[in-house]
Design brief:
The complex is a heterodimer of chains A (348) and B (354). Helix content of chain A is 41%, strand content 15%. With 348 residues, chain A is an alpha/beta fold. In chain A, strand 1 (70-73) and strand 2 (79-82) form a beta hairpin. In chain A, helix 8 runs parallel beside helix 14. The longest helix of chain A has 22 residues, at 195-216. Chain B has one domain (2-30, 46-52, 68-85, 102-347): ABC transporter involved in vitamin B12 uptake, BtuC (Orthogonal Bundle), CATH 1.10.3470.10. Chain B is 71% helix and 2% strand. A two-stranded antiparallel sheet of chain B has the order 1-2. In chain B, strand 1 and strand 2 form a beta hairpin. The longest helix of chain B has 36 residues, at 65-100. Chain B is globular and about 65 Å long. Classes of the chains: A alpha/beta (348), B mainly alpha (354). At the A-B interface, strand 10 and helix 10 of A face helix 4, helix 8 and strand 3 of B.
Chain lengths: 348, 354
């Protein structure tokens, strides 16, 4: 939804930053205008143009294989046509990079955003710089991509800029649930010529999701609090309705105590104490100073059931925040946190 | 003699009423703040629980652990920290406005906030552990950043033995811009820490618990007491440096003490609650509109009213979208600005405002 992982403060902040950065866009246009001339021809050629396709296909029907062109509608309603499976892909989001590698399309990746660090092989791919804000259009063009795979975190101005440069761009929407994720996997499979792998992966992932939901089906729901950021421990950031965290907690047999908050928001500690979560899960990563111990030591948190029973767990935020295949890892992990009794006490 | 001259032409309004009203308002807001929250605790229970903690009074009651935790570990430390921050911002704002003889001056004018912001973001980007060298890393870095910046501004602005206020303001603006630019750059380079930093910037940051309260009390009791006693030199400074010198004031020393004390108060507030806008700018003006421009009264009254104002804003921040909580710094501007405009509209026909 409007709640992308890397921008937990939500749309409003994103918009204001984008507005600020949009001031830079004219500069980008001017600077890339020089680069545009030489590359434009090579980029424009494969661009969707029904008439030119007809003209192209007509003269040489015998040796041309069946029309390989791919037409799909992307996450912002743009109709995108590729002449064939993409061979030189630039990924603008870590989730996209993870999906590409999971489908076996990693070798087709020629560029990635700076945050794309998984799987480790991804780090060997040329970085085009920042994930947010001012992407380096020049660096992207220089890689001569036949597909730029954008995501919801890609700024609209950036989409426009790349579009006007004639770069084929497909924006993968953030999924709202696992079916949305599976759709995304198949979409990327189609775009990259890995539909078979995508279907196989979806089948495998769907089975893993069902294995979890089957196990917790008859279990009593457990009250869970998910902490995104505890910089302000009197009002930590949490994830409410409409977030993937909420979906994960629900599927894992939990009940999100912040279910009445829409999207991301700060929840007052008083409310947390009153709703008394039985399990607390916090997003953990190298930049998060929170540990299970530091959380338990916060003033006022000691009477919460989860703290008293030691059921405070960190989860790698990258599993949860990046809408890619590792969401299933996250689901399995969260299910173990919430219902250890059903999963043979795999808790560490 | 100096006093008589300084007081000349200064309308004195309210007399004792000003003190009583301001104090009563602060206490009322403190009670309101402690009694309001997402969890409803009846006022009788709150009073009962408070009374049970007063030594000598043998009051015992049956209050749930949850109620006691919410009141004593969550609401009270938050209430006191918010009140202290509001007092610090109100007092230092009034002092800076007097020192710079400028109605646009606020506690952040010579770089406390931008310096503290840079310190805080550095601490976050460097991923210092929460208890770095036994201190709370972010507040400690913010406090140091704020004071270092002010020190730098003061050193730059000093020309020979004098520190002209215009130079001080200009140096402050320049150094602040630089610090803000560095902050933005670090934030953009370290995207993962970004939301922590943004949170801090909009004044939605509290450590929680009693440690921040205890840590800020020494700094604030020194700085606010000093500011409250500096009303007379501030009155004299209103005539300009030259006149003030002729009237027997050691102008440069007075300025230095004012800057040190006001910056210490502002830096303490910023360190523990983030950058809360508007309070330090508007509260002194409101007090001036209501009770007159005599700094001997203006400073202490601005201290009391700053506390009241921030306590009220905090109630709104916690209650408006409950169970979601808003950063208090957003509320102070969103609610404070219309209120101030209304007051300005009413007052401008009656008194000269500045």
């Amino acid at each position: 939804m409007d709640t992308h992982a890397f921008w937990p403060l939500g749309r409003s902040n994103q918009v204001s930053l984008w507005r600020l950065l949009s001031l830079l866009v004219p500069v980008a246009l001017i600077s890339t205008a020089c680069a545009r001339q030489p590359t434009a021809e090579s980029q424009v050629e494969p661009a969707p143009s029904p008439t030119s396709q007809v003209v192209e296909q007509a003269p040489a029907p015998p040796e041309a294989p069946a029309d390989e062109s791919i037409t799909l509608v992307d996450g912002v309603g743009r109709q995108v046509t590729l002449p064939g499976p993409a061979k030189r892909i630039v990924s603008l989001a870590p989730s996209n990079t993870e999906i590409l590698f999971a489908l076996g399309a990693g070798a087709q990746l020629v560029g990635r955003d700076d945050i794309s660090d998984y799987p480790p092989e991804a780090q060997a791919v040329t970085s085009i710089g920042s994930t947010y804000g001012q992407l380096n259009s020049e660096a992207i063009l220089a890689l001569e991509p036949d597909l730029v795979l954008a995501a919801d975190i890609t700024a609209p101005e950036q989409v426009q800029t790349l579009e006007s440069l004639g770069v084929p761009l497909f924006l993968l929407p953030n999924p709202a649930d696992f079916e949305g994720l599976f759709d995304n996997l198949e979409t990327v499979g189609r775009l990259t010529g890995h539909l078979d792998q995508a279907e196989a992966l979806v089948e495998e992932l769907r089975a893993r999701v069902e294995a979890v939901t089957d196990k917790v089906a008859s279990a009593d729901p457990v009250r869970v609090f998910y902490e995104v950021d505890g910089t302000d421990p009197t009002a930590p950031w949490t994830t409410g309705a409409g977030t993937f965290q909420d979906v994960l907690m629900g599927l894992a047999g939990g009940e999100n105590i912040a279910g009445d908050i829409q999207g991301w928001g700060q929840m007052n500690l008083e409310t947390i104490v009153a709703r008394d979560p039985q399990v607390i899960i916090f997003g953990a990563g190298p930049w998060v100073p929170t540990t299970a111990e530091s959380l338990a030591a916060r003033t006022g948190w000691d009477i919460i059931s989860a703290v008293q029973t030691g059921r405070v767990h960190g989860i790698d935020t990258n599993w949860v925040d990046r809408p890619g295949p590792r969401l299933v890892d996250a689901l399995e992990q969260i299910a173990v946190f919430i219902h250890p009794e059903l999963f043979g006490e795999e808790t560490s | 003699m100096m006093d008589a001259q300084a007081r000349e032409g200064m309308p004195r309004r309210g007399g004792r009423t000003a003190w009583l009203l301001s104090l009563a308002l602060l206490l009322a807001m403190a009670m309101l703040n402690a009694s309001m929250g997402p969890v409803k605790i009846p006022l009788s229970d709150i009073l009962g629980m408070l009374a049970s903690r007063i030594p000598g009074l043998e009051i015992s009651g049956e209050w749930s652990l949850q109620f006691r935790t919410i009141l004593f570990d969550i609401r009270l430390p938050n209430m006191i920290l918010i009140a202290l921050a509001g007092m610090a911002l109100g007092g230092s704002g009034a002092a800076y406005q007097g020192l710079f003889r400028n109605p646009l001056a606020d506690p952040y004018i010579i770089g406390v906030a931008s310096g503290a912001g840079l310190g805080a973001v550095l601490a976050m980007a460097a991923r210092w552990p929460a208890d770095f060298l036994g201190m709370a890393a972010v507040p400690a870095a913010a406090f140091a950043g704020g004071l270092i910046t002010v020190g730098l501004v003061y050193a730059i602005a000093r020309i020979g033995r004098a520190t002209p206020v215009t130079t001080l303001i200009l140096a402050g603006v320049a150094v602040s811009s630089f610090a803000t630019a560095m902050t933005s750059m670090i934030m953009l380079l370290s995207t993962e820490e970004l939301h922590r930093a943004v949170n801090w910037m909009v004044g939605g940051f509290a450590l929680g618990g009693w440690e921040p309260v205890l840590a800020s009390i020494p700094y604030l009791s020194i700085s606010l007491t000093a500011l409250a006693m500096l009303g007379r030199p501030l009155n004299v400074l209103q005539f300009g440096d030259e006149q003030a010198r002729q009237m027997g004031l050691e102008v440069e020393r007075a300025k230095l003490i004012l800057i040190v004390m006001a910056s210490m108060a502002a830096a303490t507030a910023v360190s523990f609650t983030g950058i809360i806008a508007f309070v330090g700018l508007i509260v002194p003006h409101v007090v001036r509109l209501l009770w007159g421009p005599d700094y001997r009264r203006l400073i202490p009254l601005a201290i009391l009213s700053g506390g009241s104002f921030l306590l009220a804003a905090d109630v709104i921040a916690r209650m408006a979208l409950s169970p979601r909580e808003l950063p208090v710094g957003v509320v102070t501007s969103a609610v404070g600005a219309p209120f101030f405009l209304w007051l300005l509209q009413r007052a401008k026909t009656r008194v000269r405002f500045w």
